[in-house]
Amino acid sequence: MWWFQQGLSILPVALVVWSAASFVFSYITAIVLHHVDPLVPYISDTGTIPPERCLFGIMLNISACLGMATMYVRYKQVYALNPEKSKIIKLNKVGLTLGLMSCFGLCIIANFQVLLSFPILYYIHVVGACLTFGVGAIYMLVQTVLSYLMQPEVHSKDVFWIRLTMLLWCCSSIVSMFVSSVVLYSGLYGINLVQKLHWDPQER
Predict the structure, then answer these.
(1) Can you tell me the distance from the alpha carbon of 34 to that of 197, in angstroms, rounded to the nearest whole number?
(2) Where is the CWH43-like N-terminal domain (predicted)?
(3) Which pLDDT tens digit goes with each residue over 184-200?
(4) Which phi-psi region, left, alpha or beta, contains residue 121 (left: φ > 0; alpha: ψ -120 to 50)?
């Protein structure tokens, strides 16, 4: 029996594979239909114009459901392994709340795509991104702390170090995304860049 066939291990695997597929398929569709330039487009731009917008939305909604299921299973797992430790139980409840908020943010991203004709949708989309990535990073921090508190009784230090590495990688990605957005809005490279889906060779 493969490891992901044991218990509910298939949930996190399905979450990662499906979420990656949702970005890849919408990207491929947008490139094939010439809706965006192929060189590193903004993720949200690959889900702006139909039909990739429809694909982007439905697949991210399913990702949000898989995420909620995965986080609930993690919550029950931590609770079952530490029934007597009140500190871990409280932190576990906080983690579940943060995880569900992050998944709700993913639903907002999926259903309020960036539309050039409706600027208000852009701000709602950004709120969803902040919930997904910002609150999601805090969820990862809570899970890292839980892994630290649960060693060595429940698992080895390796699990803690893996979670810490993933957390640092996630935080560095968020920082790079924030810096890129600040540069984009700074006006150094032109105006109305947020609304642009195609670039001219003469532009910086």
Answers:
(1) 10
(2) 8-182
(3) 777 666 656 555 555 66
(4) alpha
d(CA 199, CA 204): 9
Residue 45 near residue 198 (C-beta atoms within 8 A): no
Please state the length of the chain.
204
Report which of 78, 89, 173 is spatially closest to residue 129, judged by C-alpha positions.
173
Whether the full predicted model's pTM is greater than 0.70, yes or no, is yes
Per-residue burial over 86-124, b if 16 or more Cβ lie within 10 Å, else e, is eebeebbeebbebbbbbbbbbbbbbbbbbeeeeeeebeb
CA nearest neighbour of 160 among 184, 174, 144: 144
Per-residue model confidence as pLDDT tens digits over 51-106: 888 888 999 999 999 999 999 999 999 998 888 888 999 999 999 999 999 999 99
Question: pLDDT tens digit string along 1-31?
Answer: 455 556 778 899 999 999 999 989 998 998 8
Q: Hey, what are 20's tokens?
A: 């990656």
